[in-house]
Amino acid sequence: MDTTGLRERAEAWRKxxxxxxxxxxxxxxxxxxxxxxxxxxxxQDLEFxxxxxxxVLGAGPNRMNRAVVxxxxxxxxxxxxxxxxxxxxxxxxxxxxxxxxxxELSEDTAAVFAAEGIPAHxxxxxxxxxxxAFAVLHLNAAAAVMxxxxxxxxxxxxxxxxxxxxxxxxPPQDVGIAxxxxxxxxxxxxxLLTPAEGRAKGLWRDLPEDxxxxxxxxxxxxxxxxxxxxxxxxxxxxxxGVGGAWAALALKEAGFPRVTPVAEQQxxxxxxxxxxxxxxxxxGAMDLSVATAERVKAxxxxxxxxxxxxxxxxxxxxxxxxxxxxxNEVGVLLGHYVLTQGTxxxxxxxxxxxxxxxxxxxxxxxxxxxxxxxxxxxKWIANRALERTAKDGTQFVFxxxxxxxxxxxxxxxxxxxxxxxxxxxxxxxxxxxxGVTVLGYLEEIQxxxxxxxxxxxxxxLPGAAGAQTIRAIMQAFRASPPxxxxxxxxxxxxxxxxxEGGLPPSNVVAFALEGGGRVTLRPSGTEPKIKYYFEHKxxxxxxxxxPQARQRAEAKLGALIDAFLALARDRGQPA
Length: 575
Prior knowledge:
Distance between the termini: 34 Å
Number of domains: 3
CATH superfamily of the largest domain: Alpha-D-Glucose-1,6-Bisphosphate, subunit A, domain 3
CATH class of the largest domain: Alpha Beta
Number of strands: 21
Strand order of the largest sheet: 1-5-4-2-3-6
């Protein structure tokens, strides 16, 4: 698009923008004739997919703003009316986190639904994402919108959509909604009802505390040991998000009086002043938690991300040092705990993803439980659980993905960082009663089912040239898969682009290795990166100290990573 066309499009967008702040922002960019900035803002419409919307806040169609959200909501509302006959009776839940502009975006969302004749069940205060997911089922709503950017930096916000089954949307719903959005009028022409008008017509319904209380009762019921502990010391951080009050109340009700919050991060603050990237996995994000834990000599650290759908865990090793568990280790602990200590079910079912550890599958087979691997994203876990229950009569008990997402049972059909934190505390109390630590319990599992170690490497390749390089790397590995990696034979090649294992096609290639390891490649869906996931399985010798076996496993994993990255460089990845 030439500069004249770009200016005309930007002026038209500015005039239709209902938000004075982004109107002024765009006017300033136009006044400076900043063509590079304008080109980026108008390069495309912010893409609506199975994760809804997520992007940097700002003016223009390629940003998160009130104009984009009003048009998106109108499209979603019209799609719902075309596909869900009773949507005007059941309504839609609207929740939000505490990020910048979340309040305004959620109010716009509710105002558009109300104008479309769809009752909006609105949380008047910020809530964790899993509370919104829970409310869909609790209220029998037709759908839900959660305004959140999860663990992204402070300049981001997002718009997450749930279907009436309580799970995030999957194809073809995302395509249908995107098509409906494309037909929506300019943002300033989208009909709205003010909160007062909506309430007067019964189309804006402020949700009472009863809904949140029902959620807390539901997650308290997930506990297996159920005795709490007067002696277990826990440090908890909300990472400047909305989970603080919820986790504190849940842990108190569960019988854990020795919970110390990380004071600097306990209250919601969309600026995230103590962390640049409010993700517990990021370097430095847990520093304040560690400092607090050392001060109070805590046994366990629990950390939620800002919308409280993820959980990170730290526990003390045999030497007394705090260690951050990987997402896979937490998943293995919770999965084994639920399968062995939970209510005995005829056909328990556990689910993980194709980039998570294979160890949950080994545990499931050893304990005669149903098991599935699905594509990356919790939407696939929840929907597979529903499919298997309907088709095979299985009972879903646990699902996880390695990126710190877990859910126990069916209280929510999405990852739930508050519920998972509660069950992890319950697990730790059970371990304490048995005279073992959390990491001691993990060792018990690893001695029976093998010591699995894993790592992830991301290579950032920005721009059109980077995207072309990523395509070339994926194509090279598809066209000529390696017969071995670092001397370990490749026992199977799985190309998920071909619908491997009955899954929807996805741009992922995995190499299963002799001995139980795996290397998986996938381009990121949201960033200019190619991601490599590595796993190695080691069998500890009888009586061998586990740290010794772990050291050996980590060395072999490092050699595997080096060997594969050398292959990737040979196939087009920059050195």
